[in-house]
Amino acid sequence: MVQNSLVAKKSTFSTFLTSDAVKTKVNQMIAGPAGNKFITSLISLVSNNPAIAECEHSTILSSALLGESLKLSPSPQLGQFYIVPFNDNKNGRKVAQFQIGYKGYIQLAMRSGQYRDLDVIEVREGEYKGKDPFTGKPRIEFIEDDRERLSLPIVGYFAYFELLNGFRKSIYWTREKMEQHALTYSQAYKTDVKKGWKMSFWSKDFDAMAFKTLLRQLISKWGIMSIDFQTAVTHDMGIIDDNGNANFVDNSSEDIQETKTLPPVEEEVETEQVIDNSDPLNNFEE
Asked: Which of 150, 244, 257, 260 could form a disulfide with 85 if both were Cys (CB 3.0 to 4.6 A apart)?
């Protein structure tokens, strides 16, 4: 079976990738020179991160192939998706986890060709002026001086989109609401808060996780979701098997391994949208 040949615990990752079974699997999904480029890039990525190299090789490959099928880059600088080392203590193994970044969500949504604009941004102290009592639209005045703005604490998060047909929608969550969401849906973050640890993704970069959460809430409920976007949502934070299915294990904070901090966003956005403070859509742990 291909699955048995893919799990090569004793071999190096580069040896694993050049095995006949793996080359056949890659060629089935990525033909020609693109397949060779994929293998070279993946070897380079793993070589530069010893923690990933310790993971079961098949899970690294499956995460990378999923990202490739979505035409997203695993480069930390681009922030589209990440291959994250994860200790599956229940099964006594170390595996690679597929994690999409908020910029990956933006890429997948914009690629559908249905969006005129889409973005997410943090709201700083003093920028949110409340809602218009007649229209319900938020009144946000962004501070123009970047140095002054970045010196102020973050009080909330704002995501919006506009479709080509003119339909616009947005959500604004206070930081307190986002904090409650993280505590509700991430056992790892709840453990971090209780024990003063910084092991979960939420603890390492709360803002980036907030951006991703808000975009997913916004697009999943009101936007147009392509097949690729749906795939990204349903596989996010999963251990990808040889058949491309996502398996989810308990994200206790003891299991989360150190990884690169997700880059923050700095883009400015328009604010003339209708606000909505809807409840979370699902029980996906982020």
From this structure: 257
Report the alpha-carbon distance of residue 174 to residue 38 in Å, rounded.
Answer: 41
The answer to whether 119 and 269 are in contact (CB under 8 A) is: yes
| Cα 259 off chain centre by | 13
Contact 158, 271 (CB under 8 A): yes
**What are residue 256's DSSP bridge partners?**
86
Which residues of the chain carry a pLDDT beneath 70?
A: 1-10, 135, 250-286
Beta strands 168-174; 154-163: pairing state: antiparallel
Write the secondary structure of the chain as one string of H (helix), E (strand) and C (coil): CHHHHHCCCCCCHHHHHCCHHHHHHHHHHCCCHHHHHHHHHHHHHHHCCHHHHCCCHHHHHHHHHHHHHCCCCCCCCCCCEEEEEEEECCCCEEEEEEEECHHHHHHHHHCCCCEEEEEEEEEECCCEEEECCCCCCEEECCCCCHHHHHCCCEEEEEEEEEECCCCEEEEEEEHHHHHHHHHHHCHHHHHHHHHCCCCCHHHHCHHHHHHHHHHHHHHHHHCCCCHHHHHHHHHCCEEECCCCCEECCCCCCCCECCCCCCCCCCCCCCCCCCCCCCCCCCCCCC
pTM of whole model > 0.90? no
Q: What is the distance between the alpha carbons of residues 264 and 13, in angstroms, rounded to a whole number?
A: 31
Q: Which two tokens stand for residue 44?
A: 């380079």
Handedness of CA 104, 30, 36, 33 (dihedral sign): negative
Q: Are 102 and 81 in contact (CB under 8 A)?
A: no
For residue 71, which amino acid is it?
Answer: K
For residue 270, the model assigns a pLDDT of 30
The token duo for 26 is 């890659």
- pLDDT, one tens digit per residue, over 66-89 is 999 999 999 888 999 999 998 888
